Amino acid sequence: MGGTFDPVHHGHLVAASEVQAQFDLDEVIFVPTGQPWQKTDRKVSAPEDRYLMTVIATASNPHFSVSRVDVERGGTTYTVDTLHDLRNAFPDAELFFITGADALQQILSWRQAEELFSLAHFVGVTRPGYNLDDTHLPNGSVSLIDVPAMAISSTACRERVASGLPVWYLVPDGVVQYISKRDLYRNA
Ligand SMILES: Nc1ncnc2c1ncn2[C@@H]1O[C@H](COP(=O)(O)OP(=O)(O)OP(=O)(O)O)[C@@H](O)[C@H]1O
Ligand SMILES: O=C(O)c1ccc[n+]([C@@H]2O[C@H](COP(=O)([O-])O)[C@@H](O)[C@H]2O)c1
User: Fold this and answer.
1) C-alpha of residue 95 to centroid of ligand 2, in Å
2) What is the CATH number of the domain that holds 133?
């Protein structure tokens, strides 16, 4: 599951847990991005902060892990590179790539989109506020599944911190503490 994770929140975690259970996956690997090229409208937090928050958020789940492939490669992140790196790291694995409905709406604009679907099975998860009725995806390229609706976004979390509102219970406790310790989002 790739994401900017700025910060990681319970919407990400519930979606990942649901896909893990429905597809009986050995592992869900969270992959925090380097620089996301479709989010140029704002400053994204440092990759190491986003990586560490993701480690904290996933640490208690034996099926969850975090990969540094996008952080280590640096620069702009393209999923085609992520999937080639994961294939090299796990030559025999069956790879799935989990995306929310909002990201799926844009997927045909991703770099080398035509190649992506041959590198992994794509799993699209429902997300409140987004529907895929008008999104044309190549036939059979994406499995769409319902996950418990979590009306949470990283944007709303950042805005709440900037306004002095709590993010307890929207993000894991350790992530609340990390945001406070590193003084993230106060000027978001
Ligand atoms: N509440 C949610 N329910 C289901 N999927 C989600 C949810 N939030 C994010 N996702 C999916 O998780 C992946 C990573 O999302 P991302 O890190 O961009 O979070 P975000 O909340 O969309 O961030 P931002 O508000 O900063 O755009 C994307 O595929 C996105 O569609
Ligand atoms: O490959 C691309 O061109 C591309 C464009 C936009 C998003 N993505 C990936 O989609 C995932 C979710 O991205 P985001 O921006 O919604 O956090 C993350 O892994 C991104 O690297 C990938």
Assistant:
1) 17
2) 3.40.50.620
Locus of tokens 């805005």:
159
Model-wide pTM > 0.95:
yes
- Structural domain for 134, as ranges: 2-150
Q: Which residues contact 20 (CB under 8 A, 6 or more apart)?
A: 27, 28, 63, 64
Structural domain contains residue 156: no
ipTM, two decimals, is 0.99
Number of domains in the chain: 1
Counting ligands in written order, the one closest to the CA of 124 is: 1
The ligand with the least distance to the CA atom of 147 is 1
Ligand 1 pocket check for 125: Cβ under 6 Å: yes
Selection from 156, 160, 178, 176 nearest residue 168 by Cα? 176
The ligand 2 atom nearest the CA atom of 111: 3
